Amino acid sequence: MASRTATDLVHPDRDELRFTEVTAALSDPVRLAIVARLAEVEPDGELACTTFALPVSKSTQSGHFRTLRESGVIRQRDEGTRRLNRLRRSDLDRRFPGLLDLAVASGRDVLDEWSAARGVTAIGA
Amino acid sequence: MASRTATDLVHPDRDELRFTEVTAALSDPVRLAIVARLAEVEPDGELACTTFALPVSKSTQSGHFRTLRESGVIRQRDEGTRRLNRLRRSDLDRRFPGLLDLAVASGRDVLDEWSAARGVTAIGA
Question: pTM for the complete prediction?
């Protein structure tokens, strides 16, 4: 992972956040689920990419995290071999008040749907 | 335009609005510009598709209006040969409080940028 230096992780400044890019990032259920999980560990918590157990391939998951980072929804940093993620709550609340809370609520709905689907599978198995 | 009956214009019910689809619809500058223009004629005003003078082709414009309608951002109806548009303000404010206001603000920024660009062109001509 030598190529994963801090300089690889580009983050837009607060003033560079664009509504079109943030809403595009929030228009996907997997990314909303990530946002909802990160909201559970606010304000100071970070979660490693590997802890999410998302129902998508590893490469697809990486793409989702990148989209969230490049749009300004999350901040990522590398610590050893782990890539840690946190919400950019203050930047988002300043630029687009209320938007992140809506996304978190919708992300919780996604997580609930996934839980319910797993429950149905378990019962049917 | 005989095929354009009211039944062609499918609108999701308020409870069917999905955050992923609404944010996707709001993640495009042309669609944000449409939203901002429609906000200028609230609460009771409607604007015909032909009045927008958007910097895109007619077919592209039609696609943008369809995306806005199918996601639940606008309501469309046909009156003679005109297709009229209005924001679904109450439905959106109920389901996703504050989201439409953020979109309107961003759409105004798009309109301002377009105006500024036209001004520069005029000066440069």
Answer: 0.90
